[in-house]
From TrEMBL:
<dbReference type="Pfam" id="PF19529">
    <property type="entry name" value="DUF6057"/>
</dbReference>
<feature type="transmembrane region" description="Helical">
    <location>
        <begin position="77"/>
        <end position="95"/>
    </location>
</feature>
<feature type="transmembrane region" description="Helical">
    <location>
        <begin position="162"/>
        <end position="181"/>
    </location>
</feature>
<protein>
    <recommendedName>
        <fullName>Transmembrane protein</fullName>
    </recommendedName>
</protein>
<keyword id="KW-1133">Transmembrane helix</keyword>
<feature type="transmembrane region" description="Helical">
    <location>
        <begin position="253"/>
        <end position="273"/>
    </location>
</feature>
<feature type="transmembrane region" description="Helical">
    <location>
        <begin position="107"/>
        <end position="123"/>
    </location>
</feature>
<feature type="transmembrane region" description="Helical">
    <location>
        <begin position="187"/>
        <end position="205"/>
    </location>
</feature>
<keyword id="KW-0812">Transmembrane</keyword>
<feature type="transmembrane region" description="Helical">
    <location>
        <begin position="225"/>
        <end position="247"/>
    </location>
</feature>
<feature type="transmembrane region" description="Helical">
    <location>
        <begin position="18"/>
        <end position="36"/>
    </location>
</feature>
<keyword id="KW-0472">Membrane</keyword>
<dbReference type="InterPro" id="IPR045692">
    <property type="entry name" value="DUF6057"/>
</dbReference>
Length: 552
């Protein structure tokens, strides 16, 4: 029987563990809910969870499907950002507590190390929530044991393939933990799991690369990439081994505390320093039409990408400031207004939104469709599906719109919108009276034309000429002409600006550009002259590089 002072010490340690768990959850909630809510919105827009038996069976039809189903079920609640932050906080508390359940009470600080490493790993925007879910499932199922040796072995023969099918390659952590429990009894388990994976790869999963089947399937947005995620489950295993080998007696709690603090600082400063988060923030503001916030942030911070330029210019156009202030901000080049199509699910979002608001509905629909099909793990997007359905409604293609609305009606947070939109199908008067769809029906091109990206200025000019109340199309047309450096067309467009632009006087940006053209760029302090000089220098550098590559 343990002495009384040891029991009191263990009880105190257990209480500290709970205090640290709650403190960890509070930090996670504040971090994602207050500092990175846009990252939650980003994750939500790349899945569409459906409350249907077919969706469940589709997930369970491949390894890791149960973790995937639970992940998408939870991520759909990121639509409400505070709820998404709460889910992550509870998940981290549960994760830390499950690691702690494998450790002695006096080793409670060690349980924070895997949680911090997980937090660091999730700084990669493409790490899916199925990753921590699979680790937690491994920790829980590895505790299932049978006293009888032979019954326990028979159980593992059945449970190991089942674990792999439910949570995917994280079954390796399950196997490792079972070996830690009883080395002699389960030393054969790695060969059994390896055999299961190879058989499945040669039969049901031959379309996937072997490294995906073995290591990363279902945990990362890109199935073809194996990031260094396995440090996280490895840290769990090392903490369990350290506790069982009494290494914690060598590394006293002050050393463990210092390690936790240093790892936490590195996780925050290194794991979330990617400039991509700035673009994700912009995407979140575009999605919620926070145009003033985009402009205010752009005055303080610049990310030199076409995505950034597209977002800022769209915000300026929505506030009728594009003509005045466009060249006060970084412009990436001729693609600064509307990027050409890039085969990924993120880069063209601001361009697609701009096309939609301009009235180039077919282009918006094509961009949204291509981005949805470019989602690397093959999922649908609630946000993209909603916009595609709107484009079909505006174009009067009601059967296709109904197909997409039927999909959204099986979701939780898009259901009400889909049911409301469905009432407009076939109701021409209702659509024409709609504040957005009716206006875009008037703006859109009425005749077919060939979309050719190098002729973007001509397409924008034609769009404005079709409906001269579309002042956003006029602003974009003139801005594209200036980006192209087409001085004659710009001067010819100025009468349109005076007659149809709705300005009390010639916009400051146009005055600067006209002055720059008349003085052949010799205008110190001119934003447009600085842009032209930068583009000429960039073109000269590209030409020099081509000459060098040709010579070598």
């Amino acid at each position: 029987m343990k002495p009384e002072y040891i029991n009191r010490y263990l009880q105190t340690a257990a209480k500290k563990n709970w205090i640290l768990s709650v403190f960890l959850g509070a930090l996670i909630f504040l971090f994602w809910g207050g500092y990175l809510p846009h990252a939650l919105s980003y994750a939500e827009q790349y899945q569409l969870f459906l409350w249907t038996p077919d969706y469940l069976l589709g997930c369970l039809g491949h390894p890791g499907g149960a973790a995937e189903w639970l992940e998408t079920c939870l991520v759909q609640f990121y639509y409400l950002l505070w709820l998404g932050a709460m889910i992550l906080a509870l998940l981290f508390i549960g994760y830390q507590r499950m690691v702690a359940s494998w450790l002695k009470a006096e080793s409670f600080l060690l349980s924070l190390i895997p949680a911090i490493l997980l937090f660091w790993a999730m700084g990669d925007l493409d790490v899916l929530l199925s990753f921590p879910i699979a680790i937690m499932a491994s920790l829980a199922m590895a505790k299932i044991g049978v006293a009888n040796r032979w019954l326990d072995i028979c159980k593992e023969m059945v449970l190991t393939p089942l674990v792999y099918w439910l949570i995917g390659p994280m079954a390796w952590l399950y196997v490792a933990l079972r070996i830690v429990v009883d080395y002699k009894r389960f030393i054969w388990l790695p060969l059994w799991l390896l055999a299961i994976q190879l058989v499945l790869w040669h039969t049901l999963l031959e379309q996937l690369p072997l490294h995906s089947v073995m290591c990363s399937m279902g945990y990362y947005r890109s199935p073809s990439v194996v990031p260094l995620l396995w440090i996280v489950p490895l840290s769990v295993l090392l903490c369990v081994l350290a506790d069982r080998l009494y290494i914690n007696k060598v590394l006293k709690w002050p050393v463990q505390a210092i390690a936790v603090v240093v790892l936490g600082w590195l996780a925050v400063t290194r794991g979330y320093a990617d400039e991509r988060y700035e673009l994700v923030w912009q995407d979140y503001q575009v999605r919620n039409e926070h145009w003033d916030d985009i402009i205010k942030r752009a005055e303080q911070k610049t990310v030199e990408t076409a995505f950034w330029s597209n977002s800022v210019n769209l915000a300026l156009a929505e506030r009728r400031q594009l003509a005045d202030r466009m060249f006060d901000f970084y412009q990436s080049g001729i693609d600064a207004l509307l990027m050409n199509m890039v085969r990924d699910p993120f880069s063209n979002i601001p361009a697609a939104e701009a096309f939609y608001r301009l009235g180039m509905v077919n282009s918006a629909q094509r961009y949204m469709f291509d981005m949805q099909e470019s989602i690397n793990n093959g999922r649908k997007s609630g946000r993209f599906t909603q916009r595609i359905a709107e484009c079909y409604i505006i174009n009067g293609k009601y059967d296709l719109a109904r197909k997409h609305l039927a999909l959204l009606k099986n979701s939780l947070f898009y259901k009400n919108w889909a049911e409301e939109a469905e009432q407009y199908l076939g109701d021409e008067a209702g659509i024409n009276a709609h504040p957005v769809w009716g206006k875009l029906r008037q703006y859109r091109q009425k005749q077919d034309f060939l979309f050719y990206y190098p002729e973007m200025a001509s397409m924008l000019g034609s769009l404005f000429n079709g409906n001269r109340s579309n002042t956003m199309a006029l602003d974009y047309f003139v801005a594209q002409v200036l980006l192209n450096g087409d001085a004659p067309t710009f001067q010819q467009a100025l009468p349109w600006v005076e007659q149809c632009g709705g300005y009390m006087q010639m916009p400051r940006g146009y005055q600067d550009a006209l002055n720059c053209i008349q003085r052949q760029g010799n205008v110190p302090g001119s934003p447009y002259a600085a842009f032209i000089s930068r583009m000429l220098a960039k073109a000269q550098q590209q030409q020099n590089n081509q000459v060098y590559e040709t010579a070598h």
